[in-house]
Amino acid sequence: MEFSLIDRIRQRTAQGRDDVRLGIGDDAALLAMPPGQELAVAIDTMVEGVHFPIGTAAVDLGWKALAVNLSDLAAMGATPAWALLALTLPNADAAFVDGFADGFAQLAQAYRLALVGGDTTRGTLTISVAVHGFVPPGKALTRAGAQVGDVVLVTGTLGDAAGGLQLVQRGGRSDAQASYLIQRIHRPTPRVAAGLALRGHASACIDVSDGLLADLGHICTSSHVGAEIEAALLPRSSALLDLFDDATSCDFALSGGDDYELCFTVPPQHVASVQTDLARLGCGAARIGRIVEGRGVNVRDREGRQLELVHQGWDHFGA
Amino acid sequence: MEFSLIDRIRQRTAQGRDDVRLGIGDDAALLAMPPGQELAVAIDTMVEGVHFPIGTAAVDLGWKALAVNLSDLAAMGATPAWALLALTLPNADAAFVDGFADGFAQLAQAYRLALVGGDTTRGTLTISVAVHGFVPPGKALTRAGAQVGDVVLVTGTLGDAAGGLQLVQRGGRSDAQASYLIQRIHRPTPRVAAGLALRGHASACIDVSDGLLADLGHICTSSHVGAEIEAALLPRSSALLDLFDDATSCDFALSGGDDYELCFTVPPQHVASVQTDLARLGCGAARIGRIVEGRGVNVRDREGRQLELVHQGWDHFGA
């Protein structure tokens, strides 16, 4: 462990957690679990040129590397607590590390999350973060509980990150709407509070990292059900609708990755109260379809016809 | 998370742990901590061409990626329990993944360690593993407890991995002694049982990953003490002594990384019983010096002269 690099991040993240009995600087950290909770753990990696464009600002990478992991905790309904960071860098660039640390710490501080371990190595820019959170036994949201008849909902809006990515690749635009979509790639908001609010209400939950079709497909597989989605109901931002035509924005909303919204299922009688709760949290929750018998995800257009789908989402090694 | 690749590993690792409430396949794993224990966590990354030569066998990489992390738990006196794996690969190579899985699983099974989460991505071959273990509160071994007058010991033998690396780089030899040293690079043995046996006896402990001087130096820094090492006491294998001259093998033992032995300090009155315990575990423990006032590590030769040291150990970003 190279202390100087990790220390720059540690100094910016929470020091005050009394459950961190021994933090960075020894062979392992020592952590105290709150009694009566289960530990939720996840790990995610971002590679330059694969998960983010070469030249992405360090401050955005620091934020996003943590955000995509917090999104996994959000999808489980877990409260974030601790993180580990493995950062591989082409060279010891203090400005990069400081920027990365700033972005990481901005998000970590919002959750009083402590960085408790890290490793920096030399190589292609690659960032792995492992996160740890707490959830009461039996209360976690999983992908496996969706029931036929449940309503499918998503937080926020879908397709923004895919639209933003296309704008970045095209280059040129820098107005407020373009900036909004691009920000959605670089600074995704993990829906932690929404995940906590869904505990005890959602029958299944996942975060939309690979695209709605792929991720709702995981719920269907795990729950042994199918889903029917209505394209007209997909929540899309005004920026996306203004900058792209209906078919494109719909494709982005169905198949674009990197939105980090939550897709979840709720028994019909609880939908109204869940929507009220999530509106109060600021992200809202839109009904987009329902769980049916069968398997896989079908999408219907405004006339009720089943759409032919080209993209089923993002897979780093192909289908 | 790409299920097919991670699944190949998961299928080979422990399924029977009842503390894994929800394993691989959801957004996060759910784990139950044993009551009255603290959680020890560490993360380490290995990059092709930096931490291992290009062309290293996949089975060795799988073993070693876990071994270097278990070594961190060993140095804390923690019992291994769970691991997360982030594997970045240039392409979806089933033979590589199977080999990697075999090596990882061989070592995991020895400790009933469960792989509870993973992520595979495309890029330069990079492996990050995070490990989790248990230790009773207040019983962990740290780097910070060494006292003036304590004896410095190491398990096993030092310098073998550095010797093996030189043999690999030279090419050619394939006799039993060369194979032994090369095996010590590729299949390090984490000293988990030794670490557990040292709880309550060692005043400080670290694993020798960066080289004895660097790692004992970390104990000195954390404990606000110095150390004096006698070169003649450095435990060296017969293979190392047969294949390299005394000065070279001594340099390897002092500065070579990757041995993953434990270096620890013990009050004089407990040395004999500790040595008996560790002899019973098969690795043994050699006295190599003592803790003194001051700072840093000094090395004395057979005549009591202080050695001039060129290398202070391994640092991926230079001094």
UniProtKB/TrEMBL annotation, chains A, B:
Signal peptide: none annotated. Its EC number is 2.7.4.16. Mg(2+) 1 binds at D44, D119. One of its GO terms (molecular function) is thiamine-phosphate kinase activity. Belongs to the thiamine-monophosphate kinase family. Catalyzes the ATP-dependent phosphorylation of thiamine-monophosphate (TMP) to form thiamine-pyrophosphate (TPP), the active form of vitamin B1. This is Thiamine-monophosphate kinase. The gene is thiL.
